């Protein structure tokens, strides 16, 4: 049976800019079924990153609803949204936001530990499949861009998320040996 993982309905987002109000989208609807993937394509500035920020609950929509599994994202308070994000979403954004003071191993484990679902066996599987074996003791500044991306992907997968949100996934996935 087809089960919706994500349903966004009537989403509207307008930014205020020095040139005035900028409507990025209005009345945007999308549905993603469990186990499926969806690629958003469009020219630079059309609103892809903005939509992902809304779906991750990191940016506030002006109107509409976002249902993730059984939960309504926009009806949660900030704390509930943060907990939900940590436990259910894997996020790989363009700014990778690796923690500079943690090595690869600890960057991978960090969010899973906070979420309380760290699984060492799964982490080792990810390290192997992302070909990070030789890099586990290195710090982010000692890695290439592609290696850092692989760590960010591993970190997103380490929490065993229900949904992965990835910005500019081609730039990311092309560096992932296991995905080729
Ligand atoms: N924080 C912001 N304040 C004002 N305008 C923004 C902000 N973030 C993005 N924008 C504008 O919103 C539009 C959509 O941006 P974005 O979602 O980043 O596009 P894309 O990811 O598709 O390239 C662009 O015109 C961008 O300049
Ligand atoms: Mg973008």
Q: What is the tally of helical segments?
A: 6
Let me know the average pLDDT: 91
The main β sheet shows up as: 4 strands, antiparallel
Under the CATH scheme, the architecture of the largest domain is 3-Layer(aba) Sandwich
Tally of domains: 2
Classification by helices and strands: alpha+beta
CATH class (first level) name of the largest domain:
Alpha Beta
> What is the β-strand count?
6
- Cα(first) to Cα(last) distance is 29 Å
- Along the chain, the helix and strand elements come as EEHEEHEHHHEH
Strand order of the largest sheet: 2-1-3-4
What share of the residues does DSSP label as strand, in percent?
Answer: 15-25%
What CATH calls the topology of the largest domain is Rossmann fold
Rg value: 17 Å
Low-confidence stretches: none
**CATH homologous superfamily classification of the largest domain:** P-loop containing nucleotide triphosphate hydrolases
Q: What is the helical fraction, as a range of percent?
A: 25-40%
Describe the SSE topology.
Layout (H helix, E strand, L loop, with lengths): L3 E14 L2 E14 L14 H8 L7 E6 L2 E2 L5 H11 E4 L11 H12 L4 H10 L15 H14 L4 E4 L2 H5 L7
Parallel strand pairs: 5-6
Antiparallel strand pairs: 1-2, 1-3, 3-4
Helix pairs in contact: 3-5
Bound molecules: adenosine-5'-diphosphate and magnesium ion (MG).
Magnesium ion binds next to helix 1.
């Amino acid at each position: 049976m087809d089960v919706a993982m994500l349903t966004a309905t009537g989403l509207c987002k307008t930014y205020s800019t020095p040139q005035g109000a900028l409507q990025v989208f209005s009345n945007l609807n999308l549905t993603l079924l469990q186990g499926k993937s969806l690629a958003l394509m469009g020219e630079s500035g059309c609103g892809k990153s903005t939509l992902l920020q809304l779906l991750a609950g990191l940016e506030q929509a002006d109107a509409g609803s976002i249902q993730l599994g059984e939960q309504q994202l926009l009806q949660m308070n900030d704390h509930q949204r943060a907990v939900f994000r940590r436990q259910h979403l894997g996020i790989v954004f363009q700014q990778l936001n690796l923690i500079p003071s943690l090595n690869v191993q600890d960057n991978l484990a960090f969010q899973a530990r906070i979420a309380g679902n760290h699984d060492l066996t799964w982490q080792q599987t990810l390290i192997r499949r992302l070909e990070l074996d030789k890099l586990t003791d290195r710090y982010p500044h000692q890695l290439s861009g592609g290696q850092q991306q692989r760590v960010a992907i591993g970190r997103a997968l380490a929490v065993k998320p229900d949904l992965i949100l990835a910005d500019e996934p081609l730039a990311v996935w092309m560096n992932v040996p296991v995905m080729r």
